[in-house]
Amino acid sequence: MSRPGKTKFQIDLRRHLREHYVEENLIHLISEIAEASKYIIHSISTGDLGVAGTSNLYGEQQLALDVLADRILRKRLDHSRVVANMMSEEMDEIIPVSPDCGGKYSVAFDPLDGSSLVDVNLAVGTIVSIFQGCDLLQPGRKQVAALYILYGPRTTLVYSVGKGVHEFGMNMLREYTLLQENITIKPQGDLYSPGGQRNLYTPGVEAFISKLEQRGVKLRYSGGFVPDINQILLKGEGIFFYPHLQGKPEGKLRVLFELNPMAFLIEQAGGAASDGRKPILDLQPQQIHERSPVFIGCKKDVALAEELIRQLESDKDVTAKKKGKT
Ligand code: AHG
Ligand code: MN
Ligand code: MN
Fold this sequence. Notes:
This protein has 326 residues and is of the alpha+beta class.
């Protein structure tokens, strides 16, 4: 995109979306989510780090910040006039906002991913997945947009509407201005982020991590999905995996509001995202809080993981386990 006059650093989010001919209601929606992030930043820096005294559908204790961030985003989406349905990690079911789907979008979001890291002052984020119309249980490949906001030493926003991946930074005026466009990642990398307990790794995953370590790949794992994925995107290399584990065949991360949006962004940057056998974006979720194992990042590394799982873990094993109790 040639930019006579204005340097790219003065391009704000709304203008960038317009330059990419994004539909007006979607521009409004993404801008509203960006606006909401300002209030989430405020709640992180001033909010109560304690527990909310409630727990979410997973039985996980909700932190006051989880609930606060959820409420901030929910209110914004409720009043945006462009949302049909929404759901989040903190909600038990889909919340209908408007009965008609025409010209509207449905949103799945993780209001504060890695929230338990706030009290040790590590980076956390908000993850958002956007579909056209009313249906949130579609394969992730049908998303029309995905974005995350990373609350780290700097606050940055990364989005894609299917036309590349672009990063914005929050300036002194609390506006998001363009930092870099069309981010891409290499076919193979030198970083790895291994999630889950290694003593519960299955044979294929154990062989995969041993191959990476023999290659001298550097371990980078913060425990926050957003900074860990952001590192892969901005370093242009790496692989994150939270695999199926012995006794936990579904892994940990949720399809609708963690894996689908990040898989969309990583594929847009030339990477891959798999459940160990097939692309995350081709999964047909059966229920809104579905989990899946994930291998996401450099294409060749994802393919290596799939190859070793195919060789060392029969389909029967994995599918039988998948039917097991999570
Ligand atoms: P959330 O805080 O939204 O529940 O997500 C936390 C997730 C994700 O951020 C991270 O990749 C993963 O939990 C880390 O899990 P472990 O603590 O088991 O490594
Ligand atoms: Mn999360
Ligand atoms: Mn969360």
